[in-house]
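okkk here we go again. third time trying to get the magnesium ion bound version out, last two times i messed up the smiles copy paste (missing a bracket lol). double checked this time i swear
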Amino acid sequence: MKNESIKVIEVRELTKRFGDVTAVNHISFAVTKREIFGFLGPNGAGKTTTIRMLTGLITPDSGDVLIDGVDIMKNPIKAKMKIGVIPEMGNIYVDLTAKQNIILAGKFYGIARGELGNKADAILAKFGLLERADDPVKTFSKGMKQQVNIASAIVHSPELLFLDEPTAGLDVQSQRMIKTIIREMNQRGTTIFLTTHNIEEANVLCDRVGIINNGEIAAIDTPEGLKRTFEETQSVEISFDKPVDLSEIEESRLVIRKEKLGDKWRLYTDNPDKLVKYLAQFAQDHNLIFTTMEICGASLEDAFVKLTEDKY
Amino acid sequence: MPLRNFNRPFFRGIAVVTEKNIRLYYTKPPVIIFGFLFPLFMFLAFYLGKEIDFYVFFPGLLAMFLFFIASSVGPLITPWEKQAGTYERLLSFPVSITTIILGDCAAGMIFGIMINVVVLAVGLITLNYCLNIMILCLGMLLGAFCFSSLGVSLASPSVQNPSYVMMFSSIIRFPLIFISGIFIPLEDLHGLGRMLCYFSPITYMVDIFNFSLRGQSNIALIVDFAALFVFSLTFVYLANRTHKRNLMRGL
Ligand SMILES: Nc1ncnc2c1ncn2[C@@H]1O[C@H](COP(=O)(O)OP(=O)(O)O)[C@@H](O)[C@H]1O
Ligand SMILES: [Mg+2]
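finally!!
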């Protein structure tokens, strides 16, 4: 078997109910070694519940979770030794310093005390936090806290890292920093499972994205693959120098749907090339001047909206 | 070898949780107020201005301090961690709920013993006791664990504010003081009072202290130890149950 196809996470028919609410409904998927896998879904979709089951925090009603071949329910401690977890609301101890937090985490994983100080320093240096190593975390900014949060989850060099909405609530600068950290860790060989409700984040960060809605996986593919599935949502945006009647264009059957955006029209099509040529002729015939003319590809957002809209 | 055992995740987890608790929670205001000042004021209120034979009452005093201090840390930790958002983080480490609970118990136990040794030293210096050190140490260890595990089982995580937990836990803790043989010597208790006192673990602690300091006791030593042991097991079991059941509350 090739290294790339080793399944680090394997989930079968995972289900969790809270009273009447089925938070996660019979989901199955696998994450392979060295990939960044993203769970993308709106609030309440079941992302946190899924991650809590994958990391052994809550017991599923049914289904299996294998972490690197270890069943998280049957052997939680062994499975937990292999992973690092950054929970959604998970905080570090604000009364402790950055370094103390990392050392505390390291002790839980059984790292020798002599080794721990150096390890903590090395991680803090990598994150550019060495100068603040001995300051209490309560004096840190939100972004820095999240960095310490990640730092204490990777002190034992796990091969698999879970992050639940790692950039939520952070300023743009910190978001970029966290994304860079995630990418760098992945490049050094760490498999990443993250959740997000931010489409752009899933698009730029993930190798594969699972779209989750109402506790069910609506689709799993690469970001490009997901976009391709929804190619009928390609569009051409145009505006002319004077108001026009577009009903003639609609008769051409090239346009699936049209939408007015201020002084622009967005024409959805499955054949942008043909539509553009048609529009050029149309402008020529009616003596119109283009003020805007843009072909827009399908976006992950379109795919996301499409997959999650019918449920609302 | 013990050292190798200590390296096993279970014991390591308990040790690390204990260390964390000691570092973070001994100095929290609710612990100081409810664990420290309360027994002090109760002592002052009860003993001050009365003609009291300290030689007779000191063992009860010792038990009261141990009880209040050892049981003051437990109720606070989990609610505090849930509120601060550190509990979910803690659970993501390779530890089980049982490990966390035993670490919480150990922290309360150590706190109780530390302060109790100081109180004991004052007593030994000022009063002329003939000490049975073996029974005293064993009793103090078991009693501290028992009271501490009671505290942990009272960590009702359904309460939003950690200081409410201290109120709630006091509602349970105070009656246990009053029905025990602290304020009235066991031999002077009759009828209902005498019956009730057996339901308080503190009664057995007082008896052990009485035996090991004054050489007098009202209950057989073996019964004292057995009772404290059974109370401990019950409290740890209850703590395990409530903590597991309320795991998701307040996360
Ligand atoms: N502890 C809980 N008790 C009851 N309902 C819950 C609990 N946790 C989550 N839920 C419900 O399960 C659903 C999924 O929640 P969650 O997994 O937190 O979604 P997400 O992380 O995608 O926003 C929601 O409807 C939420 O209200
Ligand atoms: Mg969530």
